[in-house]
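Recap from last week: sequence in, structure out.
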Amino acid sequence: MRDYSEQILTGDGDNDYARYMRTDALLSLQRRPDEVVHRDELLFQVVHQSTELWLKLGSAELREATARVRAGELDAAIELLRRASLAVELVTGQLEMMRYLSPWPGWRSLQRHGRQLERAFAALVEERGIDLVELYRTGLGSVEHRLAEAMIEWDERVSLWRVRHYKVTTRIIGTQVVGTQGTPVDVLAKLIEYKFFPELWRIRTELTETGPMGQYHRVGSA
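Predicted structure tokens:
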């Protein structure tokens, strides 16, 4: 029987966990106490660094989800998108720890992979001859419909982060000023309306306008 108390990995650390996770290196990435100018620097760095890690994971899941969509493996893509959405949800929660956050490198990667996913989905729709409006009328529960909803969920999570980010930023430094990354705060407000998958959002409007609720609104406004 194997003795699991015996360490098998090489590298820095007192045990295999520390060596595998590289905790010594990880915990040395923050400024040392003798380097700290303000007591909140540790909080600032921990939130930023952990956010970048979650965004790295989210980007990896989006990249793989895009590959699965292109391969026609939609169930697998849906599960990966759910993980990417959860990563963004966790990042949003971290805003409560610091009240100001601008991890732009990770967000740029996420945005790039989001655009690639949009193109992969458009190619899938064309290849399978999918009418997206009809999909939402009669294809509820199909793998294509569940994929579309997983994409919407991820898009919404990013938008909610942007709302929270903007509110936290203006609470701390106000409006009509420039943030730490050189981005005017007011630009953040405009980004809230950005959609990775505008066609999927447009369909919701069309379904409302042409469905029973649309008739209700037309009658009510007559």
